Protein 1
Amino acid sequence: MCGNLGLLLVGDDVPKAVDMLLAMGQVTSMRGAQSFGFVASSQGRMRVHKAVVRKREDIAVNLARAFKRTVGRGVARPLSVCAHLRFATSSKTTRRDAHPHVWLQNVQSKVVTLNPTTQLFTTHWVSRAVVVTHNGDFEAFDLGACFGRASKCVDLSVLRDWLTQRLEAPPPSSGDSIVAAGMLELLFAAGDPWAAARLAFVASESGEAADPAPREVIAATAGILSSTLLRVAHNVASELSYSLNGQLTAETRRRHLSRLADAVAQALCADLKVSNYLAARGSLVDLSAAIAAAAVRGFFEADLRSATRQFLRRAHGSFGLVVASSLAPNSLVVASIKQPMAVGIGPGFVVYGSERAALHVGRHGEALVARRVLSEGEVVWFAPGVKESFPVCAVRMATASTNDDRPFRALTFSSMTTSRDFDMVRDNPLVMPPIRPSAFRGDVVGKDIAEIPSALRKVRDSFRDPDSPNSRAAATLARALFPSDELDRVVDLVVIGAESSLWLAEQWAANVRSAFPKLRIVVASSNKVLASLTAVANDSTCGAQTPGYTVFPSGCSPAEAVRGAVALVVSHSGQTFPSLNASRALKRAGAAVFSVAGLRDTVVASDVIGQSFALGAPHSDHIFSTDTGIRLAEAASLTTVAIHVLLTEILYAVALELRANRRAALSDDDCALVSSDLADLRQLQDECVDTNVAMLCTPTPNHRAGTSPAARRSSSASTDDSASIDLESGAPSSSRPPIYPHDEAVCHGRRWGNHVTEPFLAFLLSVAYVLATVTAGTPCLGAILDAAYDHPGTRVRYAVAFLDAVLYAFFPVVAALALRLVQRRVLLARFGKRTVLVLDVPQVHQCVVAFAQKLFGLSYGLNGIEVAGFNPSDHAVHRCLHRVVRGTLVALGVPDGRLRALIDSECAAFLTASQIKSIENWGVGPELVTIGHHTYSPAMVDGAIIFDAFKRPAFLSEVAHGTGTKEVALPSKPFPRSPSSAASPSALLLAAQSASFSASKKQAARPSVLRQTSTSDARRVAFLERPSDKDVASSTQRTIIGGSGEKGNSPRSLDDVLKSLTVVETLYEGRIATLERQIAFYVFFHTIAKRASTALWPFFGFDTWRSQAGTRVATTPSPTSPATEMSDPLPQQAVRVERVTTLTDFQDRQSAHNEGSHLALGDFFHVERDRRAYDTLTADDDSDPGLDLSAHDAAFWHAGPIPEVSTPNDDVKPDVNLVYHDETLDAP
């Protein structure tokens, strides 16, 4: 769970690197925020910096500050920065294990470069380094196949020991990424005779257990290779160097390399140390020829990007990999295997990141011209170049894949409007818009809550347009769920998600079952689905089925169960690792995958569904989007409710599609909702989105003026003691001004915020008291005694001193009691950190608990809370009664029991609350606040957030039809309401017994609505009475939900009406009322957290939008490796990634000519440091190697003396100064 980010600046008129890193770091921090590091290269210097951040520090701010302090401003171009944000997985969070990783450090190496003046090869001492940042998990490596032997996979512990012997140094850190750095150190040999010789001997080993070649043998071979290169003629040296850019034919190049290899082999046979070593291993001639050929090809072919590609083809795991080297100035290689990675280009800069959003944030996001999202197994290289070949910025770029053998291909960008190699960003509706950094400052959670009304309206409106992408996707989903031809499938719909997305999916799946009884639905965690589809029954499991098999119906394998099914992947980010890999597994198994995300520009959309992001590409009809974009807040509020509304609209759209296109063949088992029911639900949904949500998220004008909700309720009650019913709207017709639920949520939230901040304030008061009295030298009571009496007695003085000691010991309690008196709170509640219990349906309590816990993720021990959630209709009593103490805070979400289908749920909620409230000590129990629509509140309730300002139309189950037309005045009291004001059960029974339905439209009765403030038990008894069993005519009062009796053109019986109404009421609770309570909970807990985080600012404040972990996107391979294949793959599954063949084949492929397929040799021979030095060479640089050149053309070899190695000047790049800045910011 890490994130890569970086940049290459080649122009002067570009955003500042510090600002770019800050903006990119703020987005990438959603992948983890425990430690960071970067390597910056400019002006012949490579600087490495690592740090661990403290708990409450912002990692993006620390990254920018460290860069500014280490590198400074105004750095000359080109400038490259490779940064990494880490969340520890394979090792602890330490500076040593932070990225970037370098295996060999502080070592000089003699490289061979092309002197631009003489056009001859020359030697130069430089620092050599291979720097790696890695996001993902490195699990194993096929050592045998990598070096042309039989396949032999080894785990990291074996590979680490093997590399320690070959590199002659232990790894400087633990974990898996340092092993990847070691393998790349070994495989990267271009331009370095020592590295090329070392690689050649490793490739010649007989097996993994073989002993490595002695150091003196490798040094002798490197010296021979270096001396041979120095004798190459200037025309051949120039051709070999620039042939890598395609200026030499493949045959000529092969002939040149063959001559070099023959000369090196001849020298190896003549060298005593090397010949003795090779002769002991086998045929001297054959081994020397093989070693020479491998060394020459490694010197010319094993460049950085080729080494990266070779490594990835034999590595097992997931890789978002970035590689840089001191021998390749400002050249970067980025690669992607089962981890996202994207590269963006703009005027004068190139940026890359694990998060696509990191490319679109800040000033560089506004200037971004195009981007390339790396496909599975793709390797992309870029380095400074000339603007003529790449107009948007002066860089060179090339790409290759680990899935095939084709060499690197140059990427082109010839137009600012179109490109075949890049997705254009500007004016592209498929690509996410630029992100403003201001969204990441201030009260981030509060901003999200304030945007909820507009965001939900946008989601709702996207389904009203039949040509919108969401509407077309809904129609496609309906056809897939209910095909015209019956399909032989075990499961119709598989819904997956993780954490909040899963909880939203579970609620939606339950509602879909109510609306479409015939559908066979499986809803499960992405991890469980991934485990079931990738589990392997082998000897170690004795062929037993894993627990994941219980996700799908028995009688067939999981892969068979999902074949032909519709899979809906719910993930706001669209790249949560379990959901991403589970969707891949579902697609391989033959399921039709649909995506629900916060935007269309996601990894699931591109990698699984196949959405193209090229300018002008069509929208995929398998993608649903809320268009809420990237949200930095770890406490999810806007994202969850937006997905909830989108899922609601999907349900409505599928039902409407069925009713519109399959009316004749549709049965009640296919769709339990008729057209009038859908119209009623749409009416309720519109009222919720257009009006109710705004009342939940914004305060009323009176609230801004400082009038509390309780005071306004009291003033309203004094002028209006009764409330009548408006029969046109079905809502109370009282003239009392509505009280926004937002006001009540804020009022009660501030009160609970005082509970939360009490321990810290009491502690600070105690500290102040101790400091003041001890400094003054006089305790409080002693000072009073001295002031009251001139000469108090000894006993009195001792007694007062004892009381002063008691006061010192218990002053925090005294301070807390004083705070409670001032704030008018319960005095005898338990002191210390409060426990908060959230009771509501699973979706609400799970989302709210996660929201509250993340709000307090950075709180201190004395101003935090413990939060737990339970379902009052299920397990709440068994799981929370033992946690109740004096002062426990209980927030109860209450279903609207005025509806027939919800009365049992309301009774269960209040019964659970009553049992919790019954636990008392010293006459004090828990504090209970309810959240709901109904004004009824039992006497045990200490506070209520009531949605009585909502003008919800009345339901048919609330209406008693008679013959009169007079409005019924019903008693209404402000909160708190007493049960004595409730209508009696007998009155309700009488009203229920007298209810009848008129069959005549002309004589349709005006309804009176049962909105009495009555006990839930009384209403429950009333609903048990069955109304008159008469046919129901179509109601003329369309504002009455369920009042229409039509089913096609025929009237419905009372049984049909009540049955259909039950489904409508259930869907209202699951899709609308639940949403409104959830938003109210968000506002309530945000107020608590805001008060707790700002009451002691700036000394003990904390951010509420993030936690110490900082993860919003889970990118670990839970519960199985991403490389694991399905146990029973289908024929249409994706082709496996071919990692590597043999070293010889690899070198032969690389020697083939392809325009733009290789780097110029000069790119590898100057700039920064290296790690491995060979101390002495067998032959001096200025001596004749003793080669017999008679068999070669005279033009191939330089006839004059070997040129002296010059001091650094303008022609030869100077040595790179490698600087390490190791810093730890761990708290003491």
Protein 2
Amino acid sequence: MVQGVSEIAAMCVGLVGLIGAAATTGMPMWKVTAFIGANIIVMETRWEGLWMNCFRQANIRMQCKVYDSLLFLPPELQAARGLMCCSVALSGLGLLVAFGGMRCTSCFQGNDWAKTVILMVAGGMQFMACICVFIPVSWTGHVIIRDFYNPLLIDSQRRELGEALYIGWVTGAFLFASAMLFVCRRMPSDKGTFDVYHPANFLGYKPAPSKPTLMRYHPISSIPSFSLNAHNSSVEQQIATPLQNLPQAVPNNVALINPPVVYNPSLPGNASLIYQGGIFETLENEPISVEELAFKFAVTNINRNRTLMPNTTLTYDIQRINLFDSFEASRRACDQLALGVGAVFGPSHSSSVSAVQSICNALEVPHIQTRWKHPSVDNKDSFYINLYPEYASISRAVLDIVQFYKWKTVTVVYEDATGLIRLQELIKAPSRYSIKIKIRQLPTGSKDARPLLKEMKKGKEFYVIFDCSSQTSADVLKQILSMGMMTEYYHFFFTTLDLFSLDLEPYRYSGVNMTGFRLLNIDSPQVASVVERWAMERLQAPTKVETGMMEGMMTTEAALMYDAVYMVAAASQRTAQITVSSLQCHRHKPWRFGSRFMNMLKDAQWNGLTGQIIINKTDGLRKEFDLDVISLKEDGLEKENPYVMYKKSDKPLYGNDRFEGYCLDLLKELSNILGFSYEVKLVSDGKYGAQNDKGEWNGMVRELIDHVADLAVAPLTITYVREKVIDFSKPFMTLGISILYHKPNGTNPGVFSFLNPLSPDIWMYVLLACLGVSCVLFVIARFTPYEWYNPHPCNPDSDVVENNFTLINSVWFGVGALMQQGSELMPKALSTRIVGGIWWFFTLIIISSYTANLAAFLTVERMDSPIDSADDLAKQTKIEYGAVRDGSTMTFFKKSKISTYEKMWAFMSSRKNTALVKNNREGIQRVLTTDYALLMESTSIEYISQRNCNLTQIGGLIDSKGYGVGTPIGSPYRDKVTIAILQLQEEGKLHMMKEKWWRGNGCPEEDSKEASALGVENIGGIFIVLAAGLVLSVFVAIGEFIYKSRKNLDIEEVSVGQCEWHNKY
């Protein structure tokens, strides 16, 4: 609102400046005759301007003469002319540019960044116009004052400051104020450090859980100049790979490669060797760390793939040290440097890291880290590289997540003191945002967090951020489940980058909201192949350790170590002339190629398992990276909502108790009537059943044909082709195909909405009618003798007659009648009065119709839908439409012989990859996020539209069909099930079950809105028209003045010439 007011104010001030600049340019009153002391010149007053000189003698009217030659004028006058003309042009152009950047206009609608830039450009143009006004006006004032006090000039040659100079200075001030109002404005917040995207696509978040969904999350430093819309738009990318679909294996404590040197017999004999040193911390009786396994795995892959290093073989030296033993870490680092390693990887504990880092700094050998490390104060570790994302960026990302979900109260639970450092941006949030933060620490001496969770549950702390390791996260999740906190009321966010690798299966259907970050880029085919090889090698391990992780999942630690080894290998390949020499810690003689090799590492850009790797050259940290935001969601058959759904519970459920829905209630009623027991089984491929080109069936129909199932109780449509291979009961529900589409967006009135009551064609016809009537009136007034009159009534014999209806006056008469204002011209003849009367009647109807519709167009938000029926869909190609692949709806269009539906199937079949969707959930998401219409059953549309008020049903039913219970051919259950369904129908239980499962909260109906006050966004265009008219009038006035001055000058020259001729003769 404030920015809108400032924009209008800037436009108004700039318009005044434009008018002032034009007036200053055209006025001749730049210099005026000076009246000094007794030498007052009373007979003559002279003015000097940019374009002409004017003088007035006594009471004689003012006479002006335009300068005859531009080149003959003084240079300062020529410069003043040019600058003043530039100021007028710049100011006018700046206002036109600013008009496109105003919020009340539709230009660049929704792109606040572009509008801000446009307004700043307009402000710059206004400022340049201000300078172009101040320079000539101030210089002219300076010259006048200088000459006024020049003793060499006589009094009659002195001049004073004219009115135009004062107007120029005021004009410059207005232009400067306009420029400041345009320029001094807040940049849009979507250019912040981190970006949270639009809520419609972000995480697909709902209170109810569903399938894990992944989305891109970018630091702003890695995004080209964009809009996080901050919250936009297109940058989002839905990842279809669910967490549970990744390869399964388990980490172990067995080394993959026993010898320290990897030998490849296919290498040439002169192949060179490069040593890499790894120092890894272990505990007694503990398995080998995952970092060491990843280190060996990366070296093995590099040596197998000869494309990266065709003439070089990597080998490694691994040293294992005890945890917290910094002295042993220093000694082992010196041993590796004496061996001649190109880089040192590890260790990970802070005390050991500092010891090894000091040695690497002294000997100028790169030290590579893949875990979070407390930042150094002096940043003097010039040979340090850490691939783990910089903690401040992650902290800002967590803060953006909190702001996106609009959490007002947050509980932060940390494991150790380093968590407070990592989350300092979030902890400082209360001082900048209206967020209340409660900080708690997990028990340090015990893994039992239930007392802490009990306090949080009692305090109703529903939004919790856990900063802990992946192992601790797995333990905490189990205890949260035991405390009954796995419900839809809670939302847990885990800062660990390994949330995706945890076994979340026990919590999937609990209803809890769980979110986290992921750095591993598993959506890439190259990354997926590496992860699969890693999983296969882990499966060969003889020992499996319970870690709470999904079996075989590559963790972030392993991926970072893999990327670190590949980065060093890639840099080594580009520096073929660098040789690695043995270094002694006691000699303090650094590696002569160390600085060069370190620069190569920092310059390298590598697309690894964790995305693009770019190292900051100043501190060696990784500040540009991609984060996937992942959310735990259900993995149910969304297509069958509300027929079959997973039951939400804070405890694990088994068997038939896992499910609920309409079909489950129907199955229960059938079992009560017929007296049978049953076991619910979901169809393996998630399809109802369709026939391929070879005549083979899939889905539920296939399982009934193969007698895998006895009954198919589902929204299974009774069709002719299905009836040939299976039996159906009488339908328990009737329905038809209809169109699911998003509700049309309301179109808010614009600044020129006062033109909307009449279509553009009508406006054009009215304009042409006005011009046509004016021309007819002009001709008739000239033709009829009753419109001519004697302008001198005292002289009735005069032959001079005049007619008021000139062409200009005729147009003025038409415009005055159209504007309901009339004019001083009145027709006298009957013919002209007929023309005037008909025109008045025409304008009466037009103005009455316009006024009747004006209020509605200014205040009502109109809902315009681009389609109203299936015929509308078939006639266009802009809106994509489709159905669920291999469903009965798709089959209906495929087999239909009706021309409209054949045309629709041709459209869908030509775009199978985009028009046909896998299931209803995918289709609904496309309807919500893109311009897409989904053809589906009317009952499903009714259910969905009751729960999502942004969706609606378009048109009526395309066909009529029914849902029935499927049985194998010849099944004895068919007739019994049919009788039971008829009994349930007569008792009204089918209707009651549908009401139970279909009725939602409903969408609120729009209340009748009272007339609201009109704002700038409604009638701002009237002010723009008014301003344009004022500017036009100023230019016309200047033109009239110049034209009249020239005409008077010509008349005077002719008079002077006649006087001289008479005097001569």
Protein 3
Amino acid sequence: MRLLYLQSGNLSLTEDYTEHVPPYAILSHTWGIDTEEVTFDDFRAGTYINKIGYKKIKFCGEQATRDGFQYIWVDTCCINKSNLTELSEAINSMFRWYQDAATCYVYLSDVSKRYNTNEIFSQSTWKSEFRHSKWFTRAWTLQELIAPKSVEFFSQEGARLGDKGSLESLLHEITGVSVEILRGKPLIELTVQERMLWAANRTAKRKEDEAYALLGIFGLHMPMIYGEGRENAFIRLEREIGERSRGANIHGNVHWMVPRAINSLFTGRSNILFRIQKALQSQSISVVQKQRRFVITGLGGQGKSEICLQIASLMKQQFRGVFWVDVSKPSTAQRDFIAAAKMLGYSVESIPEALQILATTHQSWLLILDNADDPEFDYQIYLSSGNHGAVLMTSRVAECKRYSPDAFEALGGLEEQDSKNLLLKAAEVSPELWSSYDNQAREIVRLLGSHTLALIQAGAYISQGHCQLQQYPEVYQRQRQRLLKYRPRQAKSRYGDVYATFEASADVLEQSRRESAKDALHLLEILSTLNSSVLPLQMFEEAWEGCKEISRASDEATSIDKFTQLHLSQLPNFMVLQGDKWDPFRFTEASSLLASLSLVTRHSLDNYLGLSMHPLTHAWAKDRQDSERQGVAWIAAGCVIGFSRSNTRMWRTHERSLLPHILSYLDIEVRKAFGLAPTVVVTPILLRCGRALLDMRQDSKVDQLIRDVFFELGQDPGEPSEALSPLYELQVRSLMNLGKNKEVMALLKKAVKIRETTLAEDHPDRLISQQGLAIAYQANGQVEEAIMLLEQVVKIHETTLAEDHPDRLISQQELAIAYRANGQVEEAVMLLERAVKIRETTLTETHPDRLVSQRALAVAYLANGQVEEAAALLEQVVKIEETALVETHPNRLISQHALAVAYKANGQVEEAVALLEQVVKIEETTLAETHPNRLISQHALAVAYKANGQVEEAVALLEQVVKIEETTLAETHPNRLISQHALAVAYKANGQVEEAVALLEQVVKIEETTLAETHPNRLASQHALAMAYKANGQVEEAMALLKQVVKIKRLKWPMSHPSRAVSENALSYFLQLL
């Protein structure tokens, strides 16, 4: 038992006493609300002083000190109730602990002996409260009254009311317990009925306790099965009483064949221990309907065998025989079955003979079948016929749950708190210090995925002085294999270390001759190059579909980004190209085999199937391969990724799920990647991965990848060549996303120049380059140059391509967008109306290109003041996309975003806010917090908030956006500057004028060095700064800046341009004020 030690008014928990227990006082009380009682964990963490329940503990300590005791025992905090083994032992020992106490203090929280109007309450008054105290109605307090030699009663103020001797008549009257028993007469001299009568009207919070509280009264021991209900608990109690009264002991354990003692580090798992006990508990001795079974499956090293040891210990007295059989190999199984039969008094030579002995043994027995880990072995042969006994099986093979479909557990990691406790226990950190190491322990727990054996190894590594707790994560990153192969010197597991545990599963596959086993190993290697998170299995099917194009093509690569027969040959055998339709049989067999060994976990999510791995299994799967095998797996995985990119819709749909896999796949030095296979194999893989990252807007990652590829190819990133055009095109798109317009311009000018000298003016590649340069011009504020170049491209397209050709329509669309930016809104509308009309006659209403053109037209309508037409068209687009696209599809979200902007322009601000809140909510669950689309939507929502009068919400949201962009984007990036601009405007609306001025001055200063003086963004920021100056009383600065803005707009923009009119009106207003 564990005691509380009193020293200088302070209390501390002792270690468990198994013998030589010092004299102690014991507390008897009634429990209040559970959250108000001081628990074992509260006491260990030092967070108990302010709890209501501490009052009675404090009283007990103070009274014990006055009586000369240094130790006390209190049930609320001296028992670790999360440890079922300890709880069961405590309940079975409770009567003896009260019996052995030097004295028992009964604290009556509902009895008062207090002063009132300067007079002490009369004795009859407190005796009335005493008679009706809830202490006499509780099940547990019956043995607490009878067992101790000395029992003293105290009021809620701590005033002594009397003891068991002085109050014996009153106690007899209240409880029905005879005076002779109160004076110490042996309980065995009374009948069962007499003792039962004492408890007839007593209750407990947990109904099973009404039976368990009588164990000491009858001198019995019985395992606790909370959840069995009051009726079942009393059935078991009465059965035990009956057997004891007849002198029989059929439940007493006689045969104990268990390989080792329970591990002192065992932590948590209370729920599964309860479920197993309940499943294996016999409900009746005379009638057994079926053999009781329970199967535990799960990843190696999670503690399946340790749970069995706990169950064997907890339920020992229920079974005459407990037999542990190691079924990892037929030879060990035969050895243990024969030993079990011999223990029962029979000499047998085979497993069937031993099973027959068990089948005909009517006395209770528990058979533990440990390590049933071979997916190709039928463990049915180890189950005895008949209905007798109970069987507990452990296995890594998920299908073994079929042996007990109604009672099984797929064991996962420990709960976080239990994981932290196990780690700190294994690290030999003193319990009173656990709370101070909580954050460090949590980091290690998450790093190791709450894997039981890994936590024990980590604790052992720390306890041996190899590193400190806070250093472990950093050491793990450098020395992962060493740490996961580290073996504790004591209390070792069956396999010794984490990696050896996983390797046992791989051995099963390597020893198998089945095709599916080889496929499973190849799949495991591929998965090891990706991330441990859920991988959509559709990627493999789409990769197979992408292979069909290559199989019909020639072996020669026509471009550095093209996949060829060489890539086809790198794919695993389970993706062999046969027939015209994907046959998933071999892939499914391979993944099912890995799942059956608990090496992967299968997921059936809303829209797709997936596979994931435990982080440590994933690390082991990579580390077990030599460098050559890792290289082969990396190339194979790259081919799967690359081929699957042919289905861009799948990649858009599963972007959030696929992103961690691409990032993990590219967690390799590009130099090393080029050493794994010929350049013609590696380059297309890296380019396709780069495009995937580009679509996911992992801008900095793409930029670094491109730089590394250029370096390894020995090419100058600033000097484009036709041979490497796909790489340069990727670089251009990346630079655009990074806002590096000057680099984009320089690169595209060179690319256009090369193509203008080598290609005909109507060559598609030349026109694509010119169109890209035009888009760059526009992004740089050189709208006129963009228009000039796009008009040239459109003119050629209109003479060489049919009017419904996609390339012609795209170039017209880009020209219309440039017209809109240049204030030529009417021309933009006219061009887009023509494009939309064509697409509405040639494409279905759900076709993405048709919807994109309609959306662009709606935005142009908005710019032209045709707000109602814009809203109507966008509502039509959104309605179609909401039925044709999933709610997370980027196109659908972009259209909803645009519709919200139209609503705001139309005065429907509340509708705008509602729609943007919906868009933002979805993007916050599907996109990373740094994704540009998510930030743009949050920006728009903030602007809508401002328009709706929710200025504080606008400021808070824009501050969040700006904070992210200031850490992810260059200070010259247009998106960052636009957000800072919007935040400054919100500051001004919120009365934070000085902050607005400071932020706008910063924006204007940057834009004056990066953008042309006619760029709309630069002019808009200068206009906003002028208005902020005015609000700040800096009228002269405001006038000067606004005059400059108006002058430029009058030179460059027509009178009808809305932005020009806004600035002119503001200047007129300023002049009137003067």
